[in-house]
Design brief:
Oligomer: single chain
Structural class: mainly alpha
Number of helices: 3
Strand content: under 5%
Largest sheet: none
Number of domains: 1
Helix content: over 70%
Number of strands: 0
Shape: flat
Length: about 70
């Protein structure tokens, strides 16, 4: 039981030591990320709206009065 614990600690110590990336992110990258996040939010909102209408339609009855029903039969 001691060996898996020691291996886990050694693996955690190995992955905790991350070297510097020396990467450059230009302003265009930031705007691309922001545009992607906004598109994700807008897409989720539209999807939610479409499925909410279908889900609501399952539980809400159409309220048709008896006068409307008699008008449709004519």
């Amino acid at each position: 039981m001691k060996i898996p614990l020691q291996l886990s600690i050694m693996a955690l110590a190995l992955f905790a030591q991350v070297p510097d990336a020396h990467a450059y992110l230009d302003p265009g990258t930031g705007s691309l990320l922001l545009q992607g996040i906004l598109a994700l939010i807008a897409g989720a909102a539209v999807t939610f709206k479409l499925y909410w209408a279908k889900l609501k339609g399952l539980f809400v009855r159409d309220r048709i009065s008896s006068a409307d029903v008699s008008d449709e039969r004519r």
